[in-house]
Amino acid sequence: MSLLDRPSQTLSSGGMTLRQAWGVAGLLAAAVLTWLVFAVWPEWLNAILISKKAFVSAILNGITLAGLYFLVASGFTLIFGLMRNVNLAHGSLYLLGAYIGYEVTNRTGYWLLGVAAGFAVLAIVGVVMQVFVFRRLEGDDLRQTLVSIGISIVAADLMLAVWAGGTYQITTPEWLDGALTLPVITAVRSNGVSVFLTYPLYRVVVLAAAIVIGVGLWLMLHKTRVGMMIRAGVDDRAMLQASGVNVHAVFAIVFAVGAGLAGFAGVVGGSALSVAPGEDVRYLLASLVVVIVGGMGSITGAAIGALLIGLAEQIGLVYFPTYGIVLTFVIMVVTLAIRPQGIMGKAR
Amino acid sequence: MRMHRRTLLALAVFTGLTAPSMALAADDTIKIGLLATFEGPFTVLGEDGERGAMTAVAEMNGTVAGKKIEIVKGSSDASPDSAVRAARKLVEQDGVKVLVGPLSGDEGIAVKDYAKTQPNVTFINGTSAAQDTTLRNPAENFFRFSTDGAQWMAGLGTYAFKDKGYKKVATVAEDYSFPYTQVFGFMAEFCKAGGHVPSKSWVPIGNKDFSSVIAAIPEGVDAIYVALGGADAVNFLTQYQQSGGTAPLIGGSITVDQTVLTSKGKLKEVLKGTPSAGPTADTNDAPAWKAFVEAYKKQPGAFPSPSLFAHGYYVDMKATLLGLDKVGGDVSDGGKKLREALSSLSFDTPTGKVSLDKNRNAIADIFLTEVTEGSDGNLLNKLVKVVPQVNQTLGIPEDEFMKLGAVNRDNPSCP
After folding, report:
1. Which residues pair with B226 in a beta bridge?
2. Does the residue A243 lie in any domain?
3. How far apart are CA A267 and CA A171, in angstroms?
4. What is the pLDDT of residues A84-111, one digit of tens each?
5. Which superfamily does B2-147+286-365 belong to?
6. Is there a contact between B211 and A202 if contact means CB atoms under 8 Å apart?
7. What is the ipTM for the molecules in this complex?
8. Which fold has domain B151-283+366-403?
């Protein structure tokens, strides 16, 4: 039994239950954060945290990066939750999606078409992988995992052969360019003019897309028949099959959605950052960490995990760049130590 | 049993095929190891380094002292341990006696340390440009005919302060020895001229998301000095443009290199007019440079103009081949004669005369440049000024220079 599952009565003697204590702590944290974001900072705070602009930007960047990580990790966690298949080729799906998005955007001139192509092509690739590779190895989890490593290595070299080692930037359309002025005052000039925080519009769009997709996924899982089957499959695959559901069709749908989301994230992420060899491993690692922290098979968990990791990465980058990378893994280690199944994971 | 027999047959055929070629190798071919980054964030850079090295080989028609040159490639991913692993493989498995490489700073220091354990192998640098590869605790058998990152900055600090009028500059650079060296080279002059550097950001190599770093740059700096390479530079510059950044940039040598200038995207507007310095200039009018560009362009996948990696690997490979030519391709004495020949070697490169100092580090011309758009729309480094024959101590007497201390994150400092 982990620490967080301990009955709340142990702390209730002080007149407050554990749940209430958490609630008060959460409210306090929210109040402090709101103050940090909206108030004009005194000098001593600027001295500690570099500048308000740096701090608020780091928070915003952490959240948008989390949006991107969530897009990649949600597919990963769905596939794992349902099929017990750690698809280590998931990063390659991201990178392939990004390259396809680049090609389509470049040739047609329509960015949205590139995004759609990234999703559609990768969804098909996902189904093909499921039908021709993973279905043949059904029930053999270790072999599936090993095969997925093999696929990722072959895919990385094939992509290197086609697109070479260069760095590609997917061009975003005009209407996504430029910066938004947020109602957050970062500093007051000596002549009394307030300086407002500007933030790239595109990143706000990335975050919005992640939220829409997250909510969409949640609705699909909880309000539709297919979603019901998927959830049932996560809990007990054998029982689902025994009750007459075509499990293979459900697997194919999940793989299509998961791979498609990776491809979608590839195009969206490739426009915000850039596309280059090595991105596949980076995003695979990010989604692994996100899913381990958030809990295997849980969409809400993926969202929480992505938020933690995204914020940790960006805050680490600004305040202690050399050791920033450690922060991500500290979060992972702590999670594994006190709640091995992940924050939203179910103990099996 | 059948499988077993078949395996034996395959083995027999395999050894039958390779054995004669191994025997031949001893007589009329000479193996040269070529170590560069063919994977990871510096892949493009490594590939261009190889083009440079192969240009030098092609110039000799693939032979040296009557022996056929056999290039054995080793790949690293810009991390020091991968470079040492690749070097070990080349030396201990492939048996090369001469090795050209590696490409980047920390790799150079690691390979130099490895060189000390292999006194019979001759190591010639690729383009790695950390100062301490040759300045402090050098290896007797490690030669650098390409210059170091601080030398590459010669003239830039003074130019930024006097001609551009920048008084306060923030720096953004990767967190390893080569960018430390570059920032050192820039600041050595810039601070001396009276400039200030209020903030230095060091980012991990391979970082993708720079927007938080950009936000942390203090407002009110006159310019930002950027020493990032390859994909890192592209990411930084794109995000700088997206965030509506207005402060002009000053480029590290590899930030405004062809490997970055040719990348696809919206970098052009941000980069135009960026001053920089380095061992090459794209619009160099010297006939030797033009001839080199033509020879380089024959390599598959070449850029419109050779990057400094192509140039560095070319110079080092060329020096290697000239040295081998002098000793008749004979390295049977553990390379002793070859190393003597290399130590006293002085030759004309496409970018002027190169010779070595007592630490086996090059003294060469450095080019002050500015990014402009060429007639065909490609970005180019326009030559502004040549700083002749820069040595490793940047013209400062050696004992005084050593007192400045080893380069690191906090040294030098002039806030």
Report:
1. B172, B251
2. yes
3. 10
4. 778 899 999 999 999 999 999 999 989 9
5. Response regulator (3.40.50.2300)
6. no
7. 0.70
8. Rossmann fold (3.40.50)
